[in-house]
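Query structure, 114 tokens:
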């Protein structure tokens, strides 16, 4: 399972799609969702890219790259959980954690599958 970059997954830093957030907010433990999933035996494969600080619905990230739609690389996945959507849609892993602040889960679905 992949984890959106605004959800803590110790020992990996949560950058929130920025170049600086991890410097002022170190990760010292798993977020609640990660902790509960880890206790059930879930294996985490990595952190998923996102729109910087989740403040947009395009998924574009000038710092770490923009996740592309695996069904059409000329398009992007959209939504602040764009990296999570791209990972699942590509089949790299069956599930990913995302977060919804302003409808980004719906946007990701619309951009990636419709």
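Result returned for the query:
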């Amino acid at each position: 399972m992949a984890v959106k970059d605004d959800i803590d997954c110790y020992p990996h830093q949560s950058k929130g799609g920025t170049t600086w957030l991890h410097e002022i907010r170190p990760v010292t433990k798993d977020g609640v969702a990660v902790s509960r999933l880890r206790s059930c035996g879930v294996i985490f494969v990595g952190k998923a890219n996102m729109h910087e600080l989740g403040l947009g619905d395009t998924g574009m990230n000038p710092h770490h790259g923009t996740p592309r739609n695996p069904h059409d690389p000329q398009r992007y996945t959209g939504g602040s959980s764009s990296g999570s959507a791209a990972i699942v849609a590509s089949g790299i892993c069956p599930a990913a954690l995302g977060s919804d602040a302003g409808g980004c889960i719906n946007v990701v679905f619309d951009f990636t599958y419709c």
